Amino acid sequence: MLRKIIETIGTRYLVAFLNLILLVLNARALGIHGVGLIGLVLAAVNIVMMCNSVLSGNTIVYFMNRYPSFQVFIPAYLWTISMGALASCMMWVSGLIPEGYGMHVYLLSLLLSLTAANARFLLGTDCIRKFNLTYTLQGGLLFVAVLILYYVFDVKTVDAYICGLYIANVTAWIISLLWVMPLLKRGTWNELPSLTWNMFLYGLWAGVDNLAEQFTSRINYFLLQRFSGVGSVGLFDAGTKVSESVWNISRSISFIVFGKVAQTEDANIQKRITIQLVWLTLLATTIVMLFVLLIPEFVFTSWLFGQEFSGIRKVIICLTPGVIALACNSIFSHFFIGSGRVRISTISSLLGLSVLLLTGSLLIPISGVPGAALSGSAAYLSMLSFSIIQFCRITSTRVGELLPDKTDITSICRRIRNLGSRSGQS
After folding, report:
1. Rounded CA separation 242/289 (Å)
2. What is the pLDDT of residues 54-67, one digit of tens each?
3. If DSSP codes are grouped into helix, strand and coil, which group holds residue 269?
4. What are phi and psi of 374, to 5 degrees?
5. Which residues contact 372 (CB under 8 A, 6 or more apart)?
6. From CA 332, how far away is CA 278, in angstroms rounded?
7. Of 310, 314, 326, nearest in space to 376 by CA
8. In this predicted model, what pLDDT tens digit does every residue of 130-158 receive, in sequence order?
């Protein structure tokens, strides 16, 4: 399991690095207008994908371990095709899609959602390496395609970037589908209507959970704009992006937690895996955040962002407790979702949003950017506290049992050492 976690984290950071280089390439090739247009198109795609994920997201992993997987496959694909069309049309009518890009938003959201669905089927069958390869194909092929279009064919336009998205995601979808098809197990058709309804109810709560968490991490942008101006939002955004890069660790580990918990109904195994990986997440996230905190202010102001971003370290410092708290909460959240208790995760996210609105309204008018960072930390800490209480209640766990035992620590250290020795030999 530790090897799968390390591979997943490595995959996430590799794609994140490629995306950073792509951002620089787009800025130089397309200018600020082109980058903004791409941002609007991708924002629209992400909104449509959130609607599609009701049946094509983590819902797949939970239900494919309780029903024949082919029965889960059918509603996931049909929902994505139909809901994607409906959501895209509604956004086009509302004027939220840039002129001339309505069909691109639908087709790209369709490809990305279907590829994500395939990846969830791979995760549900514990094919973690193929799950990671699917994600790598999307990021890696986009990088290569855009590089060739920009600098070999000298086509430096927004449409060239859109073309790169099609190349990468069509390829990733076809390859991942070929991996998934042999894994699908057929079942009877009479259960399909009730299964689809149960998937919808489960996915709807998961969608509300995801939406509330997204608002919790971004609503203070609008509070800052209201009380301190757009310039403050820029400073806060830069500090937030630096701090949130650490979440690639918890997001990678949470996939493993979700897959393992969804694959078994043994409460003791679910409990033990969750506790072990919460501590692994806490340790890894804290170490990385300490390295981030050691970066001097001049690195950000002189080398990366410019003098206008003076004070960014204060933002990072204020965000640090919250970043670590949300990383740990992500593990508990995926335990709840994987064990069918998605409503608890949703309530946790709604609680965090409520705390953010309350503390942000009080702190931002007084302290500005640091107040926004502190309100974010307060929200994330409240989410973690609620999740710990609910986890202990559900699993009949005393607080002392949350501490890792000596056997767990020794096992983790031994596995890390073994991985290091194997890497050295290779």
Report:
1. 10
2. 888 888 888 887 88
3. helix
4. -65, -35
5. 220, 223, 224, 232, 236, 360, 363, 364
6. 8
7. 326
8. 988 999 999 999 999 999 999 999 888 98
